[in-house]
What we know:
Elements: H1 2-8, H2 38-55, E1 73-77, E2 87-98, E3 104-120, E4 126-134, E5 141-146, E6 149-153, E7 164-173, E8 176-185, E9 192-200, H3 202-215
Antiparallel strand pairs: 1-9, 2-3, 3-8, 3-9, 4-7, 4-9, 5-6, 5-8
Amino acid sequence: KVSHIMHRYGGHVYAFPRTGYAANAERWFAIDWHHLSVDGHEVVADGVKELIDKFGKKYSRDKARVGSWGEGDQCTNWFMDGNCPLEYGGDTRLAPFDGFGGLNKFAIEFKGRGSILFENKKSHPVPLFISYMTKKDNYPVAEVRIGRRIRLIDPQRESTPRHIMTTHFLGWSKPGVNKLHIKPVGEWLLPFRVTGIIECGACIEHNKREIIASMKLDERDFNNS
């Protein structure tokens, strides 16, 4: 189906190589058989480059169809390099943890109550998302508050036993500086790990009604917060 859609619009699909036996592909995957290894990423990069070299000559910059990202987004993520420009405090720390294939990843760990400060540079509220680590039966439920709205984030709702990062819609960030309050509920094997904050202005244009309906949230919640 994907290839049919791409063909309709003049696009091309990259397909990861298949082998006759799983053992032949082992070097391309991390120990969890879910994430790619360094070798696997190189295979994908080489394959995509080959695709571009093959078909790229048919296209030119002056004829490229580039759309608008509208309100844009503000994404802050420290998952890969541990470089977090945001201010955080409380019972928290920015720390590495064992990633995939032996490579460290980074998160703000919440062992207790804490907070993260971030800025909405728009003149109006925008949808807010949080990225965090999840693995079944390993992470605590966390109480997350933004403005006057409180959400319970449950990393255990993911049924996969694999260690992955996921993103969850929280609500709206008001213009200016916002404070995200986070409190783990109970004690678990691992601390609640936050890997990024996303403010998606473009989401307003694409699915504002759906977002508000899903949260039963009116933008006026932030007028006096």
